[in-house]
Amino acid sequence: MPNVQDQPRPAPWPHRKSRTFWAFFISYLALLTTLVVIMGVFSWYGVLQRIKRENSEKNLSDARALSSQLDDELLGFAINAQKIREVPWIRKLYTGSAVFESYFDTIRRREILWEVPLYAGGSASVIDSVLLFPNEDISISVRGWLSMDEYWCTLGLDGSQQQTLLSELRAVSSLQEIAETEPFLAANTLILAAPLESIAQPRAYICWLVRGQSLAENVQRTMPGSIASLEVLREDGSTVFQAGNPVEGNGYSCESSSLPGWRYHFTFSAAPGAVPADELLGLFKANILLLLAGLTLSYLLSVITYRPLGRVLARITPAGGQRTEVSDYHLIRSSFESLEEENRRMRDSVGQYEKTVRLDMIRQLLKGRFDEEAIQQDLDRWQIPFPADGLYQVMVLSGGERMEAYPAVQLMDKLRGRLEKISGCRHELVESMDGDLIIVLAFPSGKEASRLSRLGAELARELIALCAPYFSRRPLVSAGGVHEGYVGISISYHFAVDQRFHLPRSWGAAPDDEGIFGYYYPLEWENQLIVSLKAGSQSSADRILTELRRENKRLKPEEGAPQKAGVKLISMILETLLRVISELSLDDRLFIDDLDMVYTDESFDQKWLCLQAISARICLQAVSRRAEPENLGKKLAAYVDEHFCESSLCLKSLGDVFGLSVQSISRLFKAAAGDTFYNYLYRKRMEYACELLRTTNGTMANVANQVGYENEFSFKRAFVRYTGIRPKEYMENNRSS
For residue 33, is pLDDT > 80? Predict the structure, then answer.
């Protein structure tokens, strides 16, 4: 057995030199890097979206705060209008009381004019505030106690414009802007009006003239930096006023105003919120770590993926050979192609082998086999459809010359085609060593042998005509008789061969086998008989002799001149038996009586019985000879079981006792005991030593002497090798338990 240390070891890390490994590595690295980049992009996108969302929320919050601030200022006008409603003199004025003239005298009117600035609401954006009493045609403002026409004239409005203003004023139901007057007023001047009565046709109003630019400036002073501009719009989309500078394309938010008809349009700054530096650094570090982890993981995955491929390459690469420049996959592909080619050749070889074995099986049947059970198993294995009780006929086709390969294949195909047309017949074609074609025909057992013989003669003539174009000379077809069973194949074959030597080539087919003279004792049957006798198979030998007797009886050797053929048959069989007796070195005295009967008795049947008796005795002696080594092996094993405690017991001492060589003793003992002599002796001694250690209190030296060891040291070493522990430990453990 070769030493493991002497075997060549594979080079460490062979994948480092493989382009396929680095292709794996680059592929995994590219995949993992792509994943890391995608994860980084999504992380960055998430951060930006979060910042954008926070900015949007902040912008919305700032817009709401700014709109609330503007609403509060406008709400001040509504609150101021509510307070003015409660002023007594105003209520007296628009009710048209009879005390008007006496109450609103010159002094009272002057006092009222001093109160009017207080009704402006405290807003710096108010240019002027005026109380209007349409029914009384009175307007009270810092400009004086005037009629409504006089007051509108101070604002530069003509009559039609005044009527438009008056009609719009009567439609006011709460604080709101009178937008229709904006084109008639000074630039950027707004009129806010509120009724002083909560009825359908109020009799008194308060109006404020507001400068829109002032409102825009107030809003812009408190506008957050996130808001680029605020635009106050009317319902028709026109601009009331604007604060800041709007930016095109930015998102906006619309809020309804507390003043009916107004709404706010906010434009936010385009600058995105800044990403916190610590968060940006954290994302960068995380991506770097992921890339490093991807690099490591790519290498590990490449090693794991390449390992089975590397093992395959290690097996297909010649030992000590250099790796070629081709890729590993190309090398594996070429190796698999070679394996496929080798597999194809192997399948062809197996097919050729099966064909050869199949033909060899047919040849064995032609020579003669007498073990029907073994024959049936082989026929089933090689799928030869021959029944055990069928009728068989063999034909030998001889052309006198060997054919070329292609014509021979054509001829075989034609022969198979013709034989397949025979109803209920199964056939096999075999080529003999001398180039003859042998045709074996198998028929069911219920057929008549005479009719099948006539069929065989007709078939032989057809085959001659069929084969004639393939030979330069007229082919010869000889047919044996129809015989039953597997032995009948051999019988028919030998008759066909014998016919071939007695037929002139001009004959189309052989006559019936009844006309053949001589005896029937084929050489193949003689060899089968010799093998059976030497093997001690009496049943097989009797079967051969019985078949020989049956076939030769058909030749009627005991009548007339052919009687000499029977004597010749007896002599040939007796010669075979004497040959076996000589080769087996059997005692001649065991067969002397039967031999005398064969030589002296004139009856053919009596001679035959003596031959059978000699055959049976030869088989008995052969079996006895074969059983002697087995009995001697058992004696050797029994002797060792009895004397294994003796220290002098060895192969040489056994050879001296039984008178055999050391090699013979070793071979016989191993065949009988199933193990070598020294292994068997060692095991017996150790088992007995274990028993002594468990049950006795003797010293180690006494135990060693009792089991066949001359000294205590050798015994201890052998015991440790057998049990794994020292004898003292074994004794303590087993006694304590």
Answer: yes
Question: What's the distance, Cα to Cα, between the start and end of the chain in Å?
Answer: 43
The partner residues of 431 in beta bridges, in order of sequence, read: 437
CB 726 within 8 A of CB 720: yes
Locate 187 and state its tokens.
């630039």
- Alpha carbon 699 to its chain centroid, in Å, reads 65
User: Do 498 and 447 touch, CB atoms closer than 8 A?
Assistant: no
What CA–CA distance (Å, rounded) separates 551 from 53?
113
CA distance 85 to 92: 11
Distances (CA, A) of 150 to 157, 320, 499: 10, 122, 163
Which of these, 589, 656, 602, 660, lies nearest to 628 by C-alpha position? 660
Question: What's the half-sphere exposure (Cβ side, CA atoms, 13 Å) at 156?
Answer: 8
Contacts within 8 Å (CB) and 24+ apart, 423-427: 426/385, 426/386
Residue 226, SS3 per DSSP: coil
Tokens of 68: 């609330």
pLDDT at position 504 = 45
Residue 11 has pLDDT above 50, yes or no: no
Percent of the chain having pLDDT more than 90? 0
Give pLDDT, residue 630: 63
User: What pLDDT digit, counting tens, does each position of 114-167 carry?
Assistant: 877 777 666 778 888 888 888 888 888 878 888 888 888 888 888 787 888 888
- Strand pairing category for 476-479 and 391-398: antiparallel
- What is the Rg, in whole angstroms, of the alpha carbon atoms belonging to the chain? 65
Asked if residue 566 has pLDDT above 60, the reply is yes
Q: Which residues contact 373 (CB under 8 A, 6 or more apart)?
A: none
Q: Which contacts of 79-88 are long-range, i.e. CB under 8 A and separated by 24 or more positions?
A: 80/119, 80/121, 80/206, 81/175, 81/194, 81/195, 81/196, 81/206, 84/119, 84/131, 84/196, 84/206, 85/196, 85/197
Whole-number Cα distances in Å, 375 to 349, 381, 385, 632: 24, 10, 12, 35
Rounded to whole angstroms, how far apart are CA atoms 557 and 573?
15
Question: What average pLDDT does this structure show over 372-377?
Answer: 80
Q: How confident is the model at residue 318 (pLDDT cuts 50, 70, 90)?
A: low
Q: How far is CA 550 from CA 483, 523, 544, 598, 690, in A?
A: 11, 17, 10, 19, 68
Question: Are the C-beta atoms of 548 and 525 separated by less than 8 Å?
Answer: yes
What DSSP line would sit under 308-360, residue for residue? HHHHHHHHHSPTTPPPPSS-HHHHHHHHHHHHHHHHHHHHHHHHHHHHHHHHH
Q: Where are the alpha helices (DSSP H) in 86-142?
A: 88-95, 100-103, 106-115
| pLDDT, average across residues 706-722 | 88
DSSP 8-state class, residue 24: H
Q: What percent of the chain has pLDDT over 70?
A: 85
**pLDDT digit string, tens, across residues 618-640:** 888 877 766 666 677 788 888 88
Average pLDDT of the residues in 263-278: 74
In this prediction the pTM is 0.42
Q: How far is residue 554's CA from residue 561's CA, in Å, rounded to a whole number?
A: 15
Residue with tokens 């009493």: 133
Token pair for 679: 């292994």
Provide the 3-class DSSP secondary structure of residue 698: coil
Of the two residues 233 and 628, the one the predictor is more confident about is 233
